[in-house]
Amino acid sequence: MQFFLNGLPIGAIYALVALSYSLIYAASGVLNWSQGDMVMLGAYVGFTVFSILKLGFTSALLLAMVAVAFLGVLVQYTILRPLRERKAPPINVVIATLGVAIICRNLALGIWGPDPQILPSPVSSRPFSLAGVSVTPQDILVLSVGITLMLILHFFLKNTREGKALRAVAQDRYAAQLMGIDPERSDAVAFAASAGIGAAAGILVAPIFFVTFNMGASVGLKGFVAAVIGGLGTIPGAIAGGFFLGVVESLAGGLISSGYRDAITFALLIVVLWLKPSGLFLRKNRQKV
Amino acid sequence: MSKSSWKGRFTVLVLLLFIAAGVGAADAAQVLRIGVVGPESGGGAQLGQGQRRAVQMAVEEINEGKLAGEWTLEVFFEDDEGNPTKSASATNKLIQQSRVNVIIGAIHSSCTLADMVVTSRAGIPQITAGSTGASITQQGNKFIFRTAANDFLQADALVKYARDEFGFKKVATFTAADDYGQSGAKLLREACEKYGVELVAEPTYNNGDKDFKPQLLTIKDRGAQAIFMWGLYTEAALIARQAQQLGVDAQLFGASGMAALKLIELGGEAAQGLLLTQTFLPDSDHPKVRAFVDKYREKFNESPIPHAAQAYDTVHIIADAVRRAGSNDPRKLRDAISSTEGLELVTGDPRFNDDGDDIGKRLLITQIKGDKFEMVKFVKAGE
User: Fold this and answer.
1) Measured between beta carbons, which residues in chain B are less than 8 angstroms from residue A121?
2) Which structural domain, as residue segments, surrounds residue B257?
3) Are residues B203 and B255 in the same domain?
4) Residue B10 to residue B302: CA distance in whole angstroms
5) Are B226 and B372 members of one domain?
6) Rounded CA gap, B227 and B247, in Å?
7) Can you give the CATH number for the domain in which B177 is found?
8) Does B169 share its domain with B132?
9) For chain A, which domains are there?
10) Which residues of A touch B237 (CB under 8 A)?
11) What is the pLDDT along chain A (289 residues), one digit of tens a residue?
């Protein structure tokens, strides 16, 4: 039970990162490999706002989300759009986003240095006992902020004009265009939302894992795996995949072997893909044209 | 014969002896050549720099103060970049070209192991002031000595301290799944057996891991009263934090590999009270340490690292050995080094056991209090 619960906060983080991959993939059909580094930059911006500008946690969270969202739009505007206009094959666009990831990592190394930094948590990390399992306020914060963001995203996609446009583009880019929707604009919205969600994940994870210039690589990879397990491009799939991965990791590490935790996790990914090639939550008939 | 004439003859004799001694020293100009191998570039550069500076300082001091009797020390440095292949060829170069009589080095255990093959074949004594890997002195090699506190001594001292001072009966280890961590895990297991302490869990982690909660929960469930960590500071800090988050109330212990100020910063409140072994603490008030640190700071404008203190002591051990041996013949030097005793140096009073490990090391048990490591106890290693 304790192992199961420990998997939830980290699962929420994975879910947020998985969402950010899926959102961009659904809208533009591109895998953005720099998502993990948006998480890292979010954590660093949060660290800077919190520890150097001495603003509160909430403002750190909001400022980091806004700043990184702008960066997301910048990536869309300078990388995705020009490459698409020049008819670059999708794989080349993916490689370009990998380039963005490496640039981000080196910039962070240059600005903040190689040593890990701490972003102090706004709440206590002292545990209290709840029905026989120990829980920390930090865990609850991660879960509640994570779920709130997911709800906001849901509301945004269902009830706003931009959100509906984005879903239309995700369903059929060409048809959406015929209906007067600007797909490039929707791409930009997807990049901004994804980067912002990634930044939030970075700030939530920072008090637990420290802030390092290469933290994006592992969080990004795990988030991507979560997205694939759930079915890349689906929103509920990303969320379920994230929590599923977090819990499985915690159980595998605690009950089987901590040294082989990652090996077990990735073995599971292969098994899932073998049984359900398009992911646990994606119906086959929803393939894009 | 009268009393006065006896006195006169005695004076003449003493004078003659003095002259003879003086002439002898001036004639021979006896030189002992020391080769130093270590990383002066690459990842371990800070350690190699510390070694180089401390050796230079000790050599100047010995030559100025004539501490090696009639011997003058001459020193040759080679950079191995922390790479075993380069280290072995650097050692070869020191022996073949610079014709050194003794080698100090290397820092990385893998380099030292590679160098030992070269030095033992050439019959040149080698003293490592930086490598802690247990296997170095377990090869049956008669030419290797170590002035670094090896992992064996540290593990032994930690477990003994946990038993004697706290009365702990059930403990756990939590070690990195690499060479360093796993050699530590093995030594801790042996120490637990030796002192009759029950080892209830021995989980490992991979370097770069962020989530240690599953392993910590296992440790908590098995009722460990202490956790011995063997790894580097980032992971140790995360372990301390997550242990606190899970309400694990075991006492944390660690070895010198994680003894960096960054551990205190990253660990925050959770790292307070963590106990670890070190060989050297720059702000100790031991007079030998004070003198060394003051001089080093004045010369190089920075605090010496433990590797520097150990390298400094190593040169003094060599100076003492050549003075006693009265020869720079490597085999005689080897024998003289192995019978070192009664020297009071910065990191202890060195004596070597049959394996070549310094068992006279002053191990320090230190504790994190506030923003620094505080001395808790001096331990004579191997006692």
Assistant:
1) none
2) 152-278+365-380
3) yes
4) 53
5) yes
6) 14
7) 3.40.50.2300
8) no
9) 2-286 (1.10.3470)
10) 116, 210
11) 778 888 899 999 999 999 999 999 988 888 899 999 999 999 999 999 988 888 888 888 999 999 999 999 999 999 888 988 888 888 888 899 999 999 998 899 888 877 788 888 777 777 777 777 778 888 889 999 999 999 999 999 989 988 889 888 888 888 888 888 888 888 999 999 999 999 999 999 888 888 888 888 888 999 999 999 988 888 889 999 999 999 988 888 777 766 677 888 888 888 888 888 877 776 554 444 4
Report CB contact under 8 Å: A126, B204.
no
Q: Which of B128, B135, B144, B147 is nearest to B179 (CA)?
A: B135
Neighbours of A256 (CB within 10 A): 13
Residue identified by tokens 């009759």 is B196
Tokens of A147: 């779920």
Q: Count up the domains in chain B and report the number.
A: 2
Residue B358 is assigned to a structural domain of this protein:
no
Q: CB neighbours (10 Å) of residue B18? A: 10
Of B214, B245, B247, the CB nearest to A250: B214
Same domain, B258 and B375: yes
B318 and B369 in one domain?
Answer: no
Chain position carrying tokens 């398009």 = A278
CB pair distance less than 8 Å for B215 and A253: yes
Task: Tell me whether residue B10 is in a domain.
Answer: no
Q: Does A29 touch chain B (CB under 8 A)?
A: no
Q: What b/e sequence results for B185-202 when a residue is b if at least 16 CB atoms lie within 10 Å of its CB, and e otherwise?
A: bbbbbebbeeeebebbbb
| Residue B285 burial by Cβ neighbours in a 10 Å radius (0-12, 13-18, 19+) | exposed
User: In chain A, how many H helices and how many E strands?
Assistant: 12, 2
End-to-end CA gap in chain B: 60
Q: What's this model's pTM, rounded to 2 decimal places?
A: 0.72
Shared domain for B196 and B271, answered yes or no, is yes
Looking at the fold, whether B326 and B265 belong to one and the same domain comes out as: no
